[in-house]
Amino acid sequence: MTATTTQIKHEVKDLSLAPLGKQRIEWAGREMPVLGLIRDRFAKEKPFAGIRLSACCHVTTETAHLAIALKAGGADAVLIASNPLSTQDDVAASLVVDYGIPVFAIKGEDNATYNRHVEIALDHKPNIIIDDGSDVTVHLVQHRQNQLSDIIGTTEETTTGIVRLAAMFKDGALSFPAMNVNDAETKHFFDNRYGTGQSTLDGIIRATNILLAGKTIVVAGYGWCGKGTALRARGMGANVIVTEINAVRALEATMDGFRVMPMEEAASQGDIFITVTGNKHVIRGEHFAQMKDGAIVCNSGHFDIEIDLKTLGAEASEVRTVRPFTQQYHLKSGKSVIVLGEGRLINLAAAEGHPSAVMDMSFANQAMACEYLVKNKGKLQPGLHSIPVEVDQEIARLKLAAMGINMDTLTSEQLEYINSWTSGT
Ligand code: ADE
Description:
Elements: E1 10-11, H1 18-29, H2 33-45, E2 52-57, H3 61-72, E3 76-81, H4 89-97, E4 103-104, H5 111-123, E5 128-131, H6 135-143, E6 153-156, H7 159-170, E7 177-180, H8 185-208, E8 216-220, H9 224-235, E9 239-243, H10 247-255, E10 259-260, H11 263-266, E11 272-275, H12 285-290, E12 295-299, H13 309-315, E13 316-323, E14 326-331, E15 336-340, H14 346-349, H15 356-375, E16 383-386, H16 389-402, H17 412-418
Parallel strand pairs: 1-4, 2-3, 2-5, 3-4, 5-6, 6-7, 7-16, 8-9, 8-11, 9-10, 11-12, 12-15
Antiparallel strand pairs: 13-14, 14-15
């Protein structure tokens, strides 16, 4: 039940965890200077005065800084989890106790609770939705048509959410603007690639404590998340195999120096399997049957649909939890398969998600996207909108400045040259 022990509505695991959460939120802030600058500007300009905002994000130390920035800008914001396993309970507690932000998120919440929190996000009657996977936006469109007139727009964080919104638009069901945060270069070049790359390995290591050097790691999918994961796995000394369904990406992975083959062939070779495709049943019955005894499988894609756990469960005579977030499926064949994080995002289930330094840029984009929606209220067409290039560039400039890195500028001669088409050989 919604607790009322403080003035702020909330549903979190334990409010007494707040001091630890506050300490960790402050620590993350050291690596989030760009969002900090935006927060300070928002505090002066109050772009969200009178705006109700519902955010559905992984409740982490980084998301805390986004929520704090939005509140500083005058937003009446509530926060729910975008995944049942990704909430950091201490952060959820601190946001309620120390920052006065209503939070509805508990690590390990069941699907019914997750869905009830989605309802709570919509009960808030948002003008703006910040989504990570599009669950709130989809629920709004499917079940709360009467609230569409309140909506200024939505902002979406992930590739998976953007794919859903694009399908919604194609079906004629997206009747308001949606900011494609994932598309910003300062988002997917860094968050999807270096964030997923590092945090996925971090999740695997924290869950299993195994050595990656010398292992064969199969990465399914060579989008930005797959590229980062494969790159970092190689950096740790693993032999990396990539599986793909897109010919250009398969070629790219090949020329990046990875072995590329169908999962059918990779299944018997891998020690560790990581899915990052955004699609369903990428690892399924016929693959489990060929795996080595003790093969480890996990997922870093948004939803827990990439590994067919139902089929694996049906083949198992026993499932034992052998470490936190680590379950051993003993198969009737006599072999076993290890599943990490119940097939949910391993980087957020067993680790802490992407490091703050990349989330700084992702959430700077989110904050600026919300401001853009408010400033352009009523002027944007329904459908997906890119983050303006100037915003993307400004975020990169601020990040470089914060890192103490200078770059070149064009001379007037160079400027003239690139703007002219007359000079050639
Ligand atoms: N998605 C991936 N990593 C994240 C993090 N640290 N915080 C919020 N959302 C995330």
